Amino acid sequence: MTRDDTNGVITPATKLRRKLESGEFILAPGVYDGFSARIALEVGFDVIYMTGAGTTASRLGHADLGIATLNDMRQNAEMIANLSTNTPLIADADTGYGGPIMVARTIEQYARSGVAGLHIEDQVQTKRCGHLAGKVLVDTETYVSRIRAAVQQRKKIRSDIVIIARTDALQKHGYAESVARLRAARDAGADVGFPEGIRSITEAQQLIADLAPWPVLLNMVEHSVTPSMSASEAKDLGFQIMIVPLATMSPVYRAIKDSLQVLKKTGVPNTEFSPQQLFRVCGLDESVEIDEAAGSANFEGGVDQQ
């Protein structure tokens, strides 16, 4: 996981790091499984984000309450990251799943899985979604030890994986504590700051100013505590990354529910595309090309219905 492998190929982690270093604004839609990631790639996003809430909901069928383990999250991240070698994936890594030793293991596991960046937060191990009330945080010393362990391990394995330091202190401890924690994480070597649960545009402007020139990430969760804003508005405010965790989960919930309600009421399927179209989103044509290039004839008769 070095900057350039022996063939001169740039890793996704290096691509993400170079985007940050160049000052480029990054918009990353939240994806939660292989299909939603494929759609985001088909649309043409050049960075995508694996949401922890979406991973927990899709893989485990549970709310985001610290139920997903390192293995749950890493396996999902690895599958998504390896759908494209050209598109960096930023992934939720919750609390790092333990003390410094576990945080170091998380960094190594995510890096080996092809993840380009990840965020680690300051909640207790039995965490909850950042947009739920009643969060409990570890002390600043414990939080900084997580970040320091992450940075040290990144350097040890010679990876460019981007370390994003998230704090949930705004709700629990207020603005001053949030800034102090993010500055401490920055001093420990984190690449990006992630103040969770920003409550107003004014607060966003102040955070960016107080942390400048450090890159700051906006978690754009609509219909919650953070005011809705577009990517252009976030960029104009000075954010460098904007993730949209519900970008795929929200529309798919409504679409699936509406379709199933029609099916339950009428007994008539209500689908929009064919199996061939579905599989093409998921790389069917690329798979056929691989087979043909290997001199095989498994798909000589084609795959479309005549």
TrEMBL record:
GO MF, one term, reads: kinase activity
Query: Which InterPro entries would you find in this protein's record?
Result: ICL/PEPM, Isocitrate_lyase_ph_CS, Pyrv/PenolPyrv_kinase-like_dom, Pyrv_kinase-like_dom_sf
Name the keywords, alphabetized.
Answer: Kinase, Pyruvate, Transferase
Pfam families tied to this protein: PEP_mutase (PF13714)
Q: Superkingdom of the source?
A: Eukaryota
Write down the chemical reaction(s) this protein catalyses.
(2S,3R)-3-hydroxybutane-1,2,3-tricarboxylate = pyruvate + succinate
Report the family membership. Answer: Belongs to the isocitrate lyase/PEP mutase superfamily.
Q: What is this protein called?
A: Pyruvate/Phosphoenolpyruvate kinase-like domain-containing protein
